[in-house]
Amino acid sequence: MTTMTNSKNNKKKKKDANDGRFELRISGSGGQGAILAAILFAQASGKNPKYNVVQTQSYGPEARGGASRADVVISTNEIYYPKTMKLDLLMAFTQEACDKYFIDLKPGGLLIVDSNLVTKVPTKNSYGFPFVRMAREQIGIAMVANVIALGVIVELTGLISHEDMKAVIMERAPKGTEEKNLKALNLGFDLAKKTKRK
Amino acid sequence: MPSSNTSARVLMQGNEACAHGAIYSGCRFFGGYPITPSTEIAEGMARMLPKYGGRFIQMEDEIGSMAAIIGASAAGLKSMTATSGPGYSLMQENIGYAYMTEVPCVIVNVQRGGPSTGLPTKIGQADTMQARWGPHGDYNAIVVAPASVRECFEQTVKAFNFSERFRTPVTLLGDEVLGHMREVITVPEEGELEVISREKPDVPSEWYHHFEVTPNLVSPMAAVGDGYRYHMTGLTHDSEGFPTAKISEIKRKLDKLYYKISRFYDEIVQIDTEMTEDASICVLAYGTTARAARQAVHMAREKRIRAGLIRPITIWPFADEHIREHLAHAKKVLVVELNMGQLVNEVRRIAPRHCKVEQLNRYDGEVLNPVDIFKKILEVK
Questions:
Q1: Residue of A50, B58, B187, B258 with fewest CB within 10 Å of its CB?
Q2: Would B9-186 and B272-380 be classified into the same CATH topology?
Q3: A36: burial class by Cβ within 10 Å (0-12, 13-18, 19+)?
Q4: Separation CA B24–CA B38 (nearest Å)
Q5: Number of Cβ pairs closer than 8 Å across A and B?
Q6: What share of chain A has pLDDT > 90, as a percent?
Q7: Is A170 in the B-facing interface, judged by CB distances under 8 Å?
């Protein structure tokens, strides 16, 4: 018998099976680093022992060329269903991704977009930053747009600590790019902080 | 990447966990041919095996892969292959050979949509019966099915243990979503999980019978090169491995293949249940589907519907007695599968009379989500 085999046959269960569950999706077109960003976010959430974390993504033709996406579910409880059902947060790097996945966002859920690439935003409850442009102009490489976005997501959600996110970026960044990635992350933190104060 | 670092929490993919579980079990040979959605297992083994003094070979196809792991195991190594539907079909002939020659090995089938090349990147559970009845002839099969990344690790270890303990091929039945899903898990420490290795003979070589019918029906196994003489053939054979046409020996061989497993049913069956004691409706599912089902059961409880979950972890042998026990007070059992209805017939076979069997199936490459299952519970309760 495995450890999971012990039946939890007590009838008293929490009121809401979705309690403490946070679902987010990072989407864009292939090559923008949406999937990697989700993996990094999942890894950083895992550093906090109170969270259970599951990361899933779409495979196949859909993931190539068209809108690609990766999902993360974080919960203080055991995560039964591993995929997302209603998103608490959607990060969209492209208009196509925004159009395609906005319907999966909870009413009142948080939408973050690249404000240069997503011009038609379907809700007022959204945050827009020109991630790709900022990455190119302020960091020097467009590739770190996803890391700036990560900084924004971490700051706006408050689910994971700056330290945990930084630690993961340092672990995973290719040698020689650590500094640029950290700079991008900090830029994301600052962007979100300023916005929150408004 | 996880290390031997104790109680480290790491983000790991189901397929990766499977490879790590194999290494943990002492697997030192992998022969395979890459196929979506199982490829990450081969990649993991290719990376890790050389560091542990093992061998990784990419074979020309899945027929060769299966032959390679049988050979490696006969030579004394714990061995494994990983594949998906099309490759699993190609392997069947040699899997049958492994049943007949009683060679322990582990076959991982990360299920995708079928038949034929079907849906490479999409989920399915339509190989459930193939895992039991793939090769022709009479034999008994052990098949385990994890439902989480941590369980991918644990059940790979279990699969090796069963194969070594009972000298038989064991299939680990995963699925695309589980194989590609990442979860933060605590990697088992060394010594945390039991690791079983095959029994070796200690008799003088002239007394050795490779297929001896022992009291527990499992014969100690000498590796090729250990200095023991024996013969291996797919033809029905006597205790030394030579082809036989004697009626008594034929029956003895088949009984051995069957009863060496069925007699240890209690040791092999693993089942996970939740809230079944007072359940009027039980939902039965395995793998990824069971995780949606568990959430649906909780949703039903919130609506004061007495629902419970039955999740077989060992799929074959089917957990007849255990499941029947959990259905003792249920009026309905809802069998949820990503196929056109396979395990449901096993449930029909064993369900008590008072318990009506319902089914919910999906086979378009997508998962059933908790709401789908919850709605079905409402409909049939």
A1: A50
A2: yes
A3: middle
A4: 19
A5: 110
A6: 79
A7: no
Select from A109, A142, A138, A115 the least CA-distant residue to A127: A115
**pLDDT one-digit tens code per residue, A125-145:** 899 999 999 999 999 999 999
CATH architecture classification, B9-186: 3-Layer(aba) Sandwich (3.40)
Q: Do B37 and A16 touch (CB under 8 A)?
A: no
- The H-or-E segment that residue B69 falls in is helix B62-74
Q: Tokens 């919960």 map to which residue?
A: A75
Closest to A28 in 3D by CA, of A60, A72, A62, A74: A62
For chain B of 381 residues, list the mean pLDDT of each consecutive stretch of 10: 58 98 98 97 98 98 98 98 98 98 98 96 97 98 98 98 98 98 96 98 96 95 95 97 97 97 97 97 98 98 98 98 96 98 98 97 97 98 90
Task: Give contacts of A47 with chain B, Cβ < 8 Å.
Answer: 9
The fold for domain B272-380 equals Rossmann fold (3.40.50)
Here the ipTM equals 0.91
Reading the block at residue A33, the tokens are: 């680093």
Check A82 against B177: CB less than 8 A apart. Answer: yes
Nearest CA in chain A to B294: A80
Chain B residues in contact with A79 by the CB 8 A cut-off are 183
Nearest-angstrom CA–CA distance, A130 and B381: 52
Chain position carrying tokens 């499992």: B218
Per-residue tokens: B359: 């089914």
Least Cα separation, residue B148 to chain A (angstroms): 9
Q: Which of A4, A53, A71, A77 best tests the B interface by mutation, with the highest count of B CBs <10 A? A: A4
Confidence (pLDDT) at A197: 61
Of B217, B187, B327, which is closest to residue B271 (Cα–Cα)?
Answer: B327
Structure-token match 């069957």, residue found: B258
Q: How far is the alpha carbon of A194 from chain B, nearest alpha carbon, in Å?
A: 32
**Domain A19-197 grouped into CATH 3.90.960.10:** no
Q: What is the pLDDT of residue A11?
A: 39
Which residue is listed with tokens 């069956």? B269
Asked if the Cβ–Cβ distance from A9 to B37 is below 8 Å, we say no
What residues in chain B have their Cβ under 8 A from chain A's Cβ atoms? 9-11, 36-37, 120-122, 148, 150-151, 154-155, 158, 176-177, 180-184, 270-278, 288, 291-292, 294-295, 298-299, 301-302, 313, 367, 369-371
Average pLDDT rounded to a whole number, residues A143-157: 96
Domain ranges of chain B: 9-186, 272-380
Strands B314-316 and B142-144: antiparallel
Mutation target vs A (from B16, B273, B289, B295; most A CBs, 10 A cutoff): B295
Bridge partners, B123 (sequence order)? B112
